[in-house]
UniProtKB/TrEMBL annotation:
Pathway(s) annotated for this protein in UniProt: Lipid metabolism; fatty acid beta-oxidation
Start and end residues of each Choline/carnitine acyltransferase domain: 101-680
Localization per Swiss-Prot or TrEMBL: Mitochondrion outer membrane
Organism of this sequence: Fundulus heteroclitus
Keyword Transmembrane: yes
Chief place where the protein resides: mitochondrion
One MF term in the entry's GO annotations: carnitine O-palmitoyltransferase activity
Protein name: carnitine O-palmitoyltransferase
Topology of this chain in the membrane: Multi-pass membrane protein
């Protein structure tokens, strides 16, 4: 109006003509029209930027470029991504701009599948599998693919909802050991030997993280500092619980609760961490936890081992929940547990790397975190935190709602905040003052009859048999790490995977279907994809090395195997994997009521070697240069196959690798400690092959034990 110019090119005037308000002055109408126009322009700009960012994030060629060498196209792409991302994106800022997971062509998936099984079968079996695959591709596969593409048009992710339901929630076997996983404390340091103090700092840190999560102040995870990953799994970290059902379980998520439920000596307590809207200080939480430890009230009838219901068969737990916990005091107490922010166990045992440095200290620590006594964890909660009598801690997480990197992210924050931000006084207690007028933690009430006790006993028997069958071996490989591996110009992950292939072949005399978890969080609501690490190239290398071929030949074959593994990993991350596509085609076939011999055979193949790398996501929180002892033990999981191994590994700094190996005692062909020895030998052999002039590693480091934090 004042400059007598119209940047809208007449659109403001058009809007003014169609305004339903005629009683106000023409000047006010012009202002109102300008506001409407500017709002529409602003929304259009936001929509355009999101659309452009979504198109930019669909570009994945950068991942296949040689490490350290970025093409001009990729450099321009990175600059554009940063421009369209804004200056300070919040945790969920990218969610609307992430591309959808693409559906691969059936032809390509079948081809990659046949290539992956070639080293595992003989010629006759391979020919039979090829015929099955060709028949599927030419007939039923096309029909199933059409339905799957139809789903991909309206679903945020064509895999994730089915993966959560059919792989996790519909499983009727115990989730303890079979599904849940764990994370460990610092390996060499116990910040305080006082159990209540450690719980006070950690619980306070968890709620600080939840506050940051609600405000979206947690930085989104960016690959190469530019490419965002999906953050939707963070939404259910707190205040979530798996609810059992006869046909399928569900995951419930509630509004923020102001308390945690604490288990100690067979009793359940409700511990409020907010008083008049204020988060209690670590010292106040310690005071409340100590009250629970000092409480001499005996458990109610059936209360002590009630948690075994969550560790047994899911149908039994669902029926018991409906029969005995659907009304009265039992329902109120169960609701209290399920709606809590998270679950806490105050364990009367001492765990960790003990002063005597016994070789099985970490093994017992791992088994304790994975299953405990089978009744002193609430395995349905999104996560449970365990605090041991000697100040050690750990975490056990339910798998259906999120994958390990999400739990590892909050656990890293808690460990760092506990030690480097909150700290302890000279006596080892939390810092701060105590308000002694705080109300005491409330003990939950139960009315458990003899029939319910009988069901608890049955569930405990099932869980105990499963727990007793698990064989675990945890060890730190300190003789070299990713620093030395990188100097050999090899991917550290590829190096470990080749070592695992070599170790398994030496252990069992054959190759097996190998599962390595990779993430698909470059796409909206992405979770994981399988990298089939046993390839034609890896098997050729292992056979050559075991057959005594010349070093030059073995080095060439190793490079080819490592490069192939990296190619498979990148394809899995960019939506061109094998197993999730075939899994979804199988689900479609079940919906349509048709049988596919090919898909049935694919999904029945056992994963005798299941592997996963635990990434360090927030290295900036830990000053490892000045405090190298503050390294985590990592985490692990149970074996996927009854006659196989589960292997989790974690690179720490530049010269340390932690391994968590699991298998079952009931299988005479597997032994976790024996496989650990094979892995150590394979790592040395691979390094000697790639770097023949490398010095003999210093084995004295193996004797390093637990050190106490200096006050």
């Amino acid at each position: 109006m004042y400059t007598r110019s119209d940047p809208s090119m007449g659109l403001i005037a058009k809007i003014q003509e169609h305004l339903p308000v005629s009683q106000i002055s023409s000047q006010c109408q012009a202002v109102l029209s300008a506001v409407v126009f500017s709002t529409m322009l602003w929304l259009l700009l936001i929509f355009t930027m999101r659309l452009c960012l979504k198109q930019l994030l669909s570009y994945h060629r950068w991942m296949f470029e040689q490490h350290g060498k970025m093409s001009t196209t990729t450099k321009i792409w990175v600059a554009l991504v940063r421009i369209f991302s804004g200056r300070k994106p919040l945790l969920y800022s990218y969610q609307g701009s992430l591309p959808n997971l693409p559906v691969p062509a059936v032809k390509d998936t079948v081809k990659r599948y046949l290539e992956s099984v070639r080293p595992l079968v003989d010629d006759a079996e391979y020919e039979r599998t090829t015929e099955l695959a060709a028949e599927f591709e030419s007939s039923l596969g096309k029909r199933l693919q059409w339905y799957l593409k139809l789903k991909a048009l309206w679903a945020s992710n064509y895999v994730s909802d089915w993966w959560e339901e059919y792989v996790y929630l519909r499983g009727r076997s115990p989730i303890m050991v079979n599904s849940n996983y764990y994370g460990m404390d610092f390996q060499y340091v116990t910040p305080t030997p006082i159990q209540a103090a450690r719980a006070g700092n950690a619980i306070h840190a968890f709620f600080l993280y939840r506050r940051k999560l609600n405000k979206e102040e947690i930085k989104p995870w960016l690959l190469r500092s530019a490419v965002p990953c999906c953050s939707y799994q963070f939404e259910r970290i707190f205040d979530s619980c798996r609810i059992p059902g006869t046909l399928t379980d569900t995951v419930q998520h509630w509004e923020d609760s102001d308390y945690v439920v604490v288990y100690h000596s067979g009793r359940y307590f409700r511990l409020r961490v907010y008083q008049a809207g204020r988060l209690l200080s670590p010292r106040e939480i310690e005071f409340q936890v100590q009250r629970i430890l000092d409480d001499a009230t005996p458990p109610s009838r059936g209360e002590a081992k009630l948690g075994a219901l969550t560790a047994g068969e899911r149908i039994s737990w669902a029926k018991a929940r409906q029969t005995y916990f659907s009304s009265g005091v039992n329902k109120r107490s169960l609701d209290c547990i399920e709606r809590a922010a998270f679950f806490v166990t105050l364990d009367d045992d001492e765990r960790g790397m003990m002063a005597d440095n016994s070789s099985d200290g970490l093994d017992r620590y791992a088994k304790s975190l994975l299953h405990g006594n089978c009744y002193d964890r609430w395995f349905d909660k999104s996560f449970s935190v365990v605090f041991y009598k000697n100040g050690k801690s750990g975490i056990n997480a339910e798998h259906s709602w999120a994958d390990a990197p999400v739990v590892a992210h909050v656990w890293e924050y808690v460990l760092a905040t506990d030690s480097f931000q909150l700290g302890y006084n000279e006596e080892g207690h939390c810092k701060g003052e105590v308000d002694s007028s705080l109300p005491r933690p409330q003990k939950l009430g139960w009315e458990i009859d003899s029939e319910c006790e009988e069901q608890i006993t049955k569930s405990l028997a099932v869980a105990q048999a499963l727990a007793d069958d698990v064989d675990f071996h945890v060890f730190s490989f300190r003789e070299f790490g990713k620093g030395k591996i990188k100097k050999c110009r090899v991917s550290p992950d590829g190096f470990i995977q080749m070592a695992l292939q070599l170790a398994y072949f030496r252990d069992r005399g054959t190759f097996c279907l190998t599962y390595e978890a990779s993430m698909t969080r470059l796409f909206r609501e992405g979770r994981t994809e399988t990298v089939r690490s046993c390839s034609n190239e890896s098997s050729a290398f292992v056979r050559a090395l075991q057959g005594g071929e010349p070093a030059d030949v073995c080095r060439r074959l190793f490079r080819a195997a490592s490069d192939k593994h990296q190619q498979l990993y990148r394809m899995a991350m960019t939506g061109a994997g094998i197993d999730r596509h075939l899994f979804c085609l199988y689900v479609v076939s079940k919906y349509l009521g048709v049988d596919s011999p090919f898909l049935k055979e694919v999904l029945s193949e056992p994963w005798r070697l299941s592997t996963s790398q635990t990434p360090v996501q927030q290295a900036e929180l830990f000053d490892l240069a000045n405090h190298p002892e503050y390294v985590s033990c990592g985490g692990g999981f149970g074996p996927v196959a009854d006659d196989g191994y589960g292997v989790s590994y974690m690179f720490l700094a530049e010269n340390m690798i932690n391994f968590h190996i699991s298998c079952k005692h009931s299988c005479s062909e597997t032994d976790a400690h024996r496989f650990g020895d094979q892995i150590r030998a394979a790592l040395h052999d691979l390094l000697h092959l790639l770097d023949p002039l490398s010095k003999e590693p210093n084995r004295k480091e193996e004797s390093r034990g637990e050190v106490k934090k200096e006050k």
